[in-house]
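Listing S7. Sequence submitted for prediction.
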Amino acid sequence: MQAPGSKQTKTARVWAYVRDERPWAGGAPPGVWYRFTVDRKGEHPVRHLSDYRGWIHADGYSGFNGLFEDGPRGADGHQPGQGQKKAREMACMAHVRRKFVDVHQAQGSAIAEEAIQRIAALYAVEQTARGQSPAERAELRREHAKPLFDDLETWLAAQLAKVSGKSPLAAAIRYALNRLPKARPYLDNGVLELDNNTVERAMKPVALGRKNWLFAGSEGGGKAMAIAFTLIETAKLNGVDPQAWLTWVLDRIAEHKINRIDELLPWNWKSTTTGVAP
């Protein structure tokens, strides 16, 4: 983000929050919501999701800790008797895998390679689970993925004792052992995913755009950018041409009743048009 008066820039942030129920045949349409902030403080996601209850897929960034509350919860992510105050964390296996990929590429470690192969076996189960109902997914995972998951956790703990505690491989193993307990809930809950790649994909347009236009001109410009990304990327998630949809919306929104604004959302446009703006 440009810093007016200093002839310099500062590192701002774009956050993405995605809902996508398609992997488990859910009924809600997919959507992504972007927010722009001038720094990476954890207070931002806590504020963004202050009213959210349920599960959140996330990486291990400590700034997310304020979103979560420790303790046993039900399948819907709520803590019995705790007033349903906060959300439940589901860790990302892709981030666990990435640590081992980095070590293997740098050192050719056999242990890192085996960890990658063991994680790949978990993903192979997910190929079968994709598109099935939550109950079917949970049953499939308990039968086929749980033994693999348990073995992975036990095997990693054994490997940690064999390597130098200061090595990158040990760091990757410790990260995995710390995150795996928070990834385990997916085995019994069919609405959860093994990773957070849905939102990783949602960040790609931001990363690509950054290479082209380099920076936001101001905080206000960054917030406008986040709104544009929200509209365009949500339309794309729903198989809607963003330009055609936005043209259609802008032609109607001035006279459209605000209490019926949902009628202009991209999934409703898709269901009432042939994909070409009238």
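Caption to Listing S7: primary sequence and predicted structure tokens for the chain studied. Strands lie at 2-3, 8-9, 13-19, 31-37, 55-57, 88-90. The first strand starts at residue 2 and ends at 3.
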